[in-house]
Amino acid sequence: MVISSLDELDKGVQQLLQYLGDKRILAFRGEIGAGKTTFIQSFCHHFGVREQVTSPTFSLVNEYSYRDERGRIQYIYHMDLYRLKRMEEALDFGIEEYLYDDHYCLIEWPEIVEEILPEDTVWINLQIVNDSTRKMLIL
């Protein structure tokens, strides 16, 4: 999928959600500036998240809430593991509790925890094509 402008992000989110089905763990790869956080912002806004969606580079995890179609509170966990050097650091903050929950878990820089991610994790590679265009590969 090619996203040529910020206006196309919502369409990209909708296409991703059609693909996901019941899958809830999304692992985002891409160089700095590829649009990982920007895509996650659009993902959260699609569900009606009202909080400001920012990269949790220093807090490691941000939790966002929204109400589903039945009015129940649901959560989206947004992780940024860029600063982690060892998997033990992820285990120390309780990453497994997030991974085996029924809520969406969106992970930037997931490589450090790849071996503990569930088998059905959806891998999303974002590539910079030019200043305004990104290519998104879903694996």
Automatic annotation (TrEMBL):
Q: Where are the transmembrane segments?
A: none
**What does the entry list under GO cellular component?**
cytoplasm
Q: Which GO terms describe its biological process?
A: tRNA threonylcarbamoyladenosine modification
Q: In its UniProt entry, what is this protein called?
A: tRNA threonylcarbamoyladenosine biosynthesis protein TsaE
Q: Which InterPro entries match?
A: P-loop_NTPase (IPR027417), T6A_TsaE (IPR003442)
Write out the entry's keywords from A to Z: ATP-binding, Cytoplasm, Magnesium, Metal-binding, Nucleotide-binding, Transferase, tRNA processing
Q: Where's it found, cell-wise? A: Cytoplasm
**What PANTHER family does the entry give?**
TRNA THREONYLCARBAMOYLADENOSINE BIOSYNTHESIS PROTEIN TSAE
GO molecular-function terms, A-Z: ATP binding; metal ion binding; transferase activity
Q: Does the keyword Oxidoreductase apply?
A: no
Q: Pfam families recorded for this chain?
A: TsaE (PF02367)
The source's domain of life comes to: Bacteria
**Family of this protein:** Belongs to the TsaE family.
